[in-house]
Write a structure and sequence with these properties.
Helix content: 10-25%
Distance between the termini: 21 Å
CATH superfamily of the largest domain: FAD/NAD(P)-binding domain
CATH class of the largest domain: Alpha Beta
Pfam families: Pyr_redox_3
Keywords: Oxidoreductase
Number of helices: 8
Number of strands: 17
Structural class: alpha/beta
Bound molecules: flavin-adenine dinucleotide
GO molecular function, one term: monooxygenase activity
InterPro entries: Auxin_biosynth/cation_transpt, Bdr, FAD/NAD-bd_sf
Order of helices and strands: EHEHHHEEEEEEEHEHEEEEEEHEH
Length: 325
């Protein structure tokens, strides 16, 4: 019987695990991929918008060459945390579902079953892209994850979206020699785009290096063309690749298999107490960016760094009050 099973070995799961270890709890992290699996799948050349100081957890310094760390420096940091704290992690093991048991919960993975008193859901949002739901979205040339600009050199690339990922991808591909067009639903690049990226993308659009269609939707993707819905009517463009940078959301199918109740508003957040992070299922806690539901731009590593300690304090408190009865 574990005290605590943590689903997800990203920054938040690792943070909870260190707090649990420090408190002497019998914990296990179950991660379906590699350590910090989401970060591993971020664009290869990406730089975080946070400084390494703001990403530091558990009093452990995060050293990077510049103020803002790169993806590979972040991967190095999380690997070092796992190894230095000798965390108890099972990698390449996916949690499939969870049921209440006589005491605590029974958690089923693709490799076995665990009995645990408490569960932490730290599954992030990066596994489930928000789909456009248009014909042709399932063609192999359509990518919901942008990785490396090398792939797109000399190609006609449509970037869908106007947030950070879309602007980063558009600029990087254009700089490596892709012919980049952007389809943007609103009438401007989003205000929340990083302050050093926004003027860059706006200037490239204004000078015509990157062609942007505003107030425009992507209507259909064909093997060698895309159809845009512009204010002047439908427009057919030649196209080799589509980078659909339309955002991500938590895996609601998984939440359902875990039995997590979801708020009935636009945020679609799991129901939890914001002070303790305990959900309406006793002993089941939310951690990290998964807490934000669909409002994925509200929570980051930066502003969820206290989750580990809050959850472990709650578990210890609940254990003491149970013994007291
Ligand atoms: C491109 C990008 C840049 C970002 N830059 C910053 C930044 O500069 N600063 C900042 O503070 N935040 C940033 N964020 C936001 C946030 O930091 C990241 O989303 C971060 O990964 C969140 O950490 P997490 O541990 O909550 O979730 P994740 O890192 O997503 O971790 C969730 C883990 O759960 C695992 N998992 C999911 N389902 C299962 C399952 N069924 N069984 C087992 N394991 C499972 C996943 O494989 C993953 O490893 C960025 C996000 C993106 C997408």
């Amino acid at each position: 019987m574990l005290d605590l099973l943590i689903i997800g070995g990203g920054p938040s799961g690792i943070n909870v695990a260190i707090s649990a270890k420090r408190a002497g709890l019998n914990y296990l992290v179950v991660e379906k991929g590699v350590i910090a699996n989401s970060l591993y799948h971020f664009p290869v050349n990406m730089t975080f918008f946070s400084t390494s100081l703001k990403l530091e957890i558990q009093d452990t310094p995060f050293i990077s060459h510049q103020d803002k760390p790169t993806r590979s420096e972040a991967l190095e940091y999380y690997r070092r945390l796992v190894q230095s704290f000798r965390l108890n992690l099972k990698l390449y093991e996916e949690v499939l579902r969870m049921e209440p048991a006589t005491e605590g919960y029974r958690v089923t993975t693709d490799k076995g079953e665990y009995a645990t008193r408490n569960v932490v859901v730290a599954t992030g949002f990066y596994d489930t892209p928000r789909l456009m739901d248009i014909p042709g979205e399932d063609l192999p040339k359509v990518r919901h994850y942008y990785d490396d600009p090398h792939v797109y050199i000399g190609q006609k690339v449509l970037v869908v979206g106007a947030a950070n990922s879309a602007c980063d991808a558009a600029l990087e591909c254009w700089r490596k020699g892709a012919e980049v067009t952007m389809a943007i639903r609103g009438d401007a690049i989003y205000d929340r785009v990083k302050y050093w990226i926004k003027p860059d993308i706006e200037n490239r659009i204004n000078e015509g290096s990157i062609k942007a269609y505003f107030n425009t939707t992507t209507e259909e993707i064909r093997p060698h063309e895309v159809v845009l819905g512009t204010p002047d009517g439908p427009l057919v463009l030649e196209n080799d690749f589509v980078l659909a940078m339309t955002g991500y959301q938590p895996n609601y199918e998984l939440f359902e298999r875990l039995g997590l109740p979801i708020q009935e508003d636009d945020s679609c957040k799991p129901v939890f107490d914001p002070n303790t992070l305990e959900t309406s299922l006793p002993g089941v806690y939310m951690a990290g960016v998964a807490c934000a539901g669909r409002e994925t731009s509200k929570l980051f590593i930066e502003n969820t760094r206290d989750h580990g300690q809050i959850i472990v304090d709650g578990i210890l408190q609940n254990a003491t009050s149970t013994v007291g009865h």
